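**User:**
My hope is that you can spare some time for a protein that puzzles me. This is the protein in question:
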Amino acid sequence: MIKQLSLDSAKLLKRSPKFRLGFAITLAMVFLSVVGLIASPYADEGWGLVSPEALTRQGLPPCLPFSCPSLSHLFGTDEMGRDLLSRILVGTHIALLQVVSVLLLSLFLGIFLGILAGYGNRVVEKLLTYLTELFMVMPSFIVAAAFVVVFSRGMLTVIMALVLTWWPWYAKTAYTIVRGLRELDFIVICEVMGASRAYIIFKHILPNTLPIVLVQAIGDAGSIAIEIASINFLIGTASAQSIDLPEWGMIMGYGLRYIRTYWWITIYPGIFLLILALGLVLMGDGLSEYISPVLRRRWKSWI
């Protein structure tokens, strides 16, 4: 199975220029996240600390010496004198961590409940399908706002809110696949021969469900990155003081009040977010086109 996956990945990289570009962009972001953790120019300032050197850069606009983008601070400094490039680099791994966490948790919960609904009894099926429909109509921004009020603002709160609003889509896809699989002959034969439900699920249903839902999840990664940043942007906008967590959305949200003077606080994290989302979207589109011959033919006809 691992060998086949490697062959499929090699074919995908060879045949899909869109996937190659998206993969290269995402890989570059992973590299930057490592750089941010081990070799950021001002590590303490990247994590939100105001160093003694940063205190000398604080002041009112227009730019004080070294506060604007320069050779010493390529992206300038924020309103507290902290090096913005260091904060963006440290925030890269936070952005990737949030996207991966939301995807993995949503996939696990969605596939588990989708298989349970599709291969369970009628009572479980009805209960889980109604629950899925209920969570599908819940806006993530409203859920995130409720979580911030009930718990506290932070990375874990945003992840929890997005998992609650993203898992139903994977559960519905898994449920639809399982409902079709359970009527096929090889599943019926296994049941007649007395195979346990656990054996049928892990041997036949899960291997035929996981790849399709995984493709859907990869295609959603770019949207999840934008949604995470949007929620954090609102948190940063509503904050009375600068937030130490170097999350791109929070940096942009808090920097919005300085957009006429310290414009780089909002612009540069936004550029990084745009590049990351573009890479993830290109990967998802390339993978979808590779899986679906219909999409490949459609793109070729347009070109």
In short: The two ends are 35 Å apart (CA to CA). The chain has 13 helices and no strands.
